[in-house]
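Hi all, long-time lurker, first post. I run a small reading group and we've been trying to get comfortable going from sequence to structure in the token notation. Rather than ask abstract questions, I figured I'd post a concrete chain and ask someone more experienced to write out its structure so we can walk through it together at our next meeting. Sequence below, copied exactly:
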Amino acid sequence: MICLIVGQILFKDFFELNFDGSYVHATDFASCGAVIHNSDGKFIQAFSKRLDHCHILETHLQVIFYAMKMTLYLKVDTLIVESDCLEAIQLLDDVDH
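-- Answer (accepted) --
Happy to help. Here is the structure in token form:
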């Protein structure tokens, strides 16, 4: 289960994904990174990746993609996704498209 939560966390045992991306317009390069920890705050896994020639929304979507692959490998049951990129979260949350 992937949860996009605003406000109070309703699960006892869960994993949380925190990620961010950056884009430098002058060089047209981007990078991203993510950290997964459990409901006790224990570090589980992290990664960072350089991305070539993409803009900030694509950067956020790519980090979500890589993080989802990582959570499949870790066999995560409940994942809470946190991001400061509202547009990326809205795209994930839009089940009609």
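A couple of things your group might point at:
Residues 56-74 form the longest helix (19 residues).
The helical segments are 56-74, 86-93.
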